[in-house]
Amino acid sequence: MIMTVCTCTGCSLLCEDIEVDIEKGTISHAKNLCRKGWAHFQALFKERTKPTIDGEAVTLEAAINKAAEILANSKKSLLYGWSSTSIEAQAAGIDLGKKLGATLDDTSSFCEGTLIELVMAGKIPTCTLDDVRNYADTSVFWGADPSNSHPRHLSRFSYYPRGEKRQKSYEEERSCVVVDVRKSATATLCPNYYYRLPPGADGQFIESIMAALDGKIPKFGDKKRMIELGTLLRKTEYGVIFPGLGMVLSLQEKMDLLQKLVARLNEITAFKVVPMVEHFNTRGFNQLLLDQTGFINSVSFQDGAPVHDPEQSVIAAARSCDAALVIGSDPLSALPFGTARALAQKPLIAIDPHRSLTTDAAKVVIPSAMCGLEAGGTAIRMDGVKITFDPVMKSDLPSDEQILVMIKEAI
Question: Which fold has domain 48-110+280-410?
Answer without folding.
Answer: Rossmann fold (3.40.50)
